[in-house]
Amino acid sequence: MPYPRFDRSILNVKPLSERYNKVNIEKDQIPITQKPSNDSEIFNKIVNDTVERIIKAKEKDAPVMLTMGAHTIKNCMAPTIIKLMEEGWLTHLATNGAGIIHDWEFAYQGVSSEDVKANVNMGQFGIWDETGKYINLALVVGAFEDKGYGESVGSMIENGGLKIPTEEEIDQIVKDYYSNPEKTAAALDLLDTIKKFDLPSGWMEIPFPYKQYCVQAAAYRLHIPFTGHPMIGHDIIYTHPLNHGAAIGRTALRDFLTFANQINQLENGVYMSVGSAVMSPMIFEKSLSMSQNVHIQKGKHIDNHYMLIVDLAKSTWDWADGEPPATDPAYYLRYLKTFSRMGGTMKYLSADNRDFLLALYQRLNEHS
Fold first, then answer.
1. pLDDT tens per residue, range 264-294
2. Residue 201 contacts by C-beta under 8 Å, 6 or more apart in sequence?
3. What residues make up the domain containing 172?
4. pLDDT in tens, 131-180
5. pTM of structure
6. CB count in 10 Å sphere of residue 61
7. Within a domain: 13
8. Is residue 25 in a domain?
9. Which residue, of 67, 85, 163, 319, is most buried by count of CB atoms within 10 Å of its CB?
10. Where residue 96 sits, what CATH number does that domain have?
């Protein structure tokens, strides 16, 4: 007998327009010309070192990857990140499920970031219709179309909607099950969603009046991979009845393998992890291990990679000396401990992500 499960269909899901939001992308966006508030010697040295590494990586056609936590998006840094992409400095972006959501909400309504404390108390935190409906639907459709997590959401925003296939189109795929079982499974998941929520076939138009501030849409438009790395139950889209676990799994796994493929080419490259304490180090270490496995089989090894870790916490330990003892609190800074084990060159910068990205873009722009 299965354990009892929560029935999301009984939730009072309210329109997103009723939610109070703390951040307005038009009013709060950080202009690319804003001067960074941090002008310390160590800040300038590490930023300049990173700029040099990025320029060398570009010369050698090596990856330059930016992985970030949700606050980088919520801090309205989209204009800077989009410029870094448009000017050819980034080859890959990645974020967690919350970063995907903030980016989507900014594009859809221009505001994001609800009052968690107040809304949990009222039984309303995360239980909003449009965010849950459209992101989950994008993932079910994206899984059917063989897209990754970030690509599914980014293409929906860039294209202004989703194409819902007819039941006859899905039936044809199901009849040809043996030629592509995975495609068939994704088609049946989509069919289940179509029937359960009575979705009409054809083009579903979804307006995104603030698309110019959307990092995912820009990445899709520029053909730069933007991968999403969610964790089940971590994000508000899991409260919505339309949420589909199989679609999450398919799209997120494709994105993990896309991310890992970029790590597999990281020799002479640059990896920047900005404000991601758990997701970035966890997917990086598995991806690097798989990549080293393949390289070793060919008599090679990834050694000349540069990793810059940016976060607010002060580091009291010199990681160039190896790991601190388990009795030192620094030992439990997971993102530092993990990246210190990854070979190559690791640098840590304690800084606000706004200051770092502004300084990075402005100094790269000077070089170009």
1. 999 999 999 999 999 999 999 999 999 999 9
2. 164, 165, 166, 167, 169, 194
3. 31-367
4. 999 999 999 999 999 999 999 999 999 999 999 999 999 999 988 887 88
5. 0.96
6. 10
7. no
8. no
9. 67
10. 3.40.50.10690
